[in-house]
Design brief:
mainly alpha; Jann2411-like fold; two-stranded antiparallel sheet; 48% helix; 9% strand; disordered N terminus
Length: 233
């Protein structure tokens, strides 16, 4: 996340720090509560750029979808609206889990909002072999040993919602997986991430971003308090 004192001529490159596809998409609004707020998925074209950045779709597939979106703008707008609604659902659902834990009753209430996205995703899905670029919501350089032999895929070349379906499916997998207990929220900003630290002690979305900013703010506050204390004597 970006500090209020940061100066830049345009939006920065969005950090990918969530550790899971669904959480990374939830974090696509940079500095959401600050003066440098920027939505990295504000348009369908933005959504395609983010999707290629996280290797959810290929550059060639993004090109085809971009051309298709120009011919079918209403459908592209519907896909974008669906993506924005899904993002709100993910922040609400996994934000609640990060703050209160995965209680069955409350989580089930949030699930009712996620379920239509998952239903649409699975209705459009097919089975495919291992994807070398994406395993269990993580973006890697190749399949890990012991990776599942099959995965969900969305092969329809004319489906503009292909940028929404994998995110919804990944969110459903996370909701019933072992990693759910590791969903955390940054101590400084609203971003979500998987805390994979040994003692579940990670506090920030990114140590070099929010972690560094937090330390600087504390240092400035201590210096100011010391100056005030010295002036009192």
């Amino acid at each position: 996340m970006e500090t209020a004192s940061t100066r830049r001529s345009g939006p920065r490159e969005l950090p990918i720090v969530g550790g899971h596809l669904a959480l990374d998409f939830a974090n696509t609004v940079d500095d959401p509560l600050g003066p440098q707020r920027h939505d990295h998925a504000a348009t369908y074209d933005d959504l395609l750029r983010w999707s290629t950045k996280v290797r959810m779709i290929s550059e060639s597939q993004a090109g085809r979808l971009r051309r298709l979106a120009r011919r079918r703008p209403d459908e592209a707008f519907q896909a974008l609206e669906s993506a924005h609604e899904l993002r709100d659902v993910l922040n609400e659902l996994f934000g609640h889990i990060a703050e209160s834990g995965p209680g069955v009753t409350q989580t089930a209430k949030h699930w009712t909002r996620l379920r239509p996205f998952v239903t649409d995703a699975m209705a459009a899905a097919t089975l495919a072999g291992p994807d070398p670029d994406d395993r269990d919501g993580h973006h890697t350089s190749g399949p890990r040993p012991g990776s599942p032999p099959l995965r969900w895929a969305w092969p329809r070349p004319d489906d503009l919602a292909v940028v929404v379906h994998p995110i919804a499916a990944a969110a459903a997998d996370l909701l019933v997986g072992d990693q759910l207990r590791r969903v955390s929220r940054c101590a400084r900003c609203p971003w979500l991430f998987l805390d994979t630290s040994k003692n579940h002690s990670r506090r920030w979305c990114d140590m070099n971003d929010c972690g560094k900013a937090q330390k600087i703010e504390r240092y400035v506050a201590r210096r100011a308090a010391a100056r005030r204390g010295g002036a009192d004597h």
